[in-house]
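Sequence in, structure out. Go.
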Amino acid sequence: MNIQELHTVFLKYPSVSTDTRNINKGDIFFALKGENFNGNTYAKKALEQGASYAIVDEEEFIQNDRTILVDDCLTTLQQLANYHRKFCSAKIISLTGSNGKTTTKELINAVLSSTYKTVATKGNLNNHIGVPLTLLSITPDTEFAIVEMGANHLEEIAFLCYIAQPDFGYITNFGKAHLEGFGGVDGVIKGKSELYEYLIKQDKSIFLNADDPIQLNKLKSYTRKYGFSTENSSYYKIEFLGAQPFVRLKFDDTEATSNLIGSYNFHNCCAAVIMGKYFNVDVPKIKQSIENYTPKNNRSQIIENLDHYIILDAYNANPTSMKAALENFNTLDRVNKITILGDMFELGNSAEEEHQTVVQITEQMNFDQVMFVGENFYRTKTALKKFKNFDKLKQYLTEHSVPKKSTILIKGSRGMALERVLDHI
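Output:
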């Protein structure tokens, strides 16, 4: 069965699943493989649970005429997504960057969905599997698809662009993330800029943060760009009004107060504003969309109860985002400030240096308590409290209760799962 024929089947059953734990009736199941599993072994179960078809790439797992044999399930999923993307009329907005991708994507979707029919990447499903799944969620009436693209090595963004073929693009920033895979900051810049390279080659429109000298320099000779700035009069002006603790901004003589903490979220809001303006969303709707968006999934969440005021930012961490979070926390006008910081992952040979730098930054700030957790932080040189693993931190918190009415920043990489701290403070 070729891709065109498979797409005809997909139009009849326009829902895809790669996991038998969440199969819905009528789904087309793709038997993907991973390091520790072979999806082909679940094809029979998928059909029994109501899947319309199962796509397999090993002949021995053919069950009946509802099983479709292909050369490679992942490649077929990607080809089907690319075919469907070209079949539909929706405009594709792709975004990548080192920090803030998911929050920015959610803000853009909030703004555009106030006026248009949109779909957007669910959560952070932004890789070679997640991007195809997002594209396959586009329906005939979808006007915009906001597609988040993640990468931890060179040529990955270029490949995702090949699949999604975006009409518009935005890069949040270039920071110290996935240094191990990219081989350093220069590699990060080169890898993320693959989105620019695709859009320029295709003569498509680019949104940019004109306050970022890297973006400004890379796009200085490109004409199809639309940017925002706090100072540069050549671009749409957005004013930063502060973040105590929530980001406030002003555009078109309109002030908006978000539910996002930290000045580092200002540019994420700006990206949503600039796209709303470009696509003719009414300013009152832009304001309302930004003010109504509430972060979740451990991303800069505010948890306020009778005991503490907690900033839970435990979804991810890298040197750039860690520094920004600490600087913002340091500016908050609150009492009894406590930081609990977990290891940053995927830093390769830079891990020791980058963790020590975070320690030094923290030492220069006047926090009431600091706790580092994880093997990388444990190896740093500091007089501040440090714990080799979460169990050691848990033991300490059990024996030493956190003072009431504390303001607590919790931040670390996803693998540290620092949201577990909430059960012990």
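Check: Residues 249 and 408 are 25 Å apart (CA to CA). The domain at 301-424 is CATH 3.90.190.20 (Protein-Tyrosine Phosphatase; Chain A).
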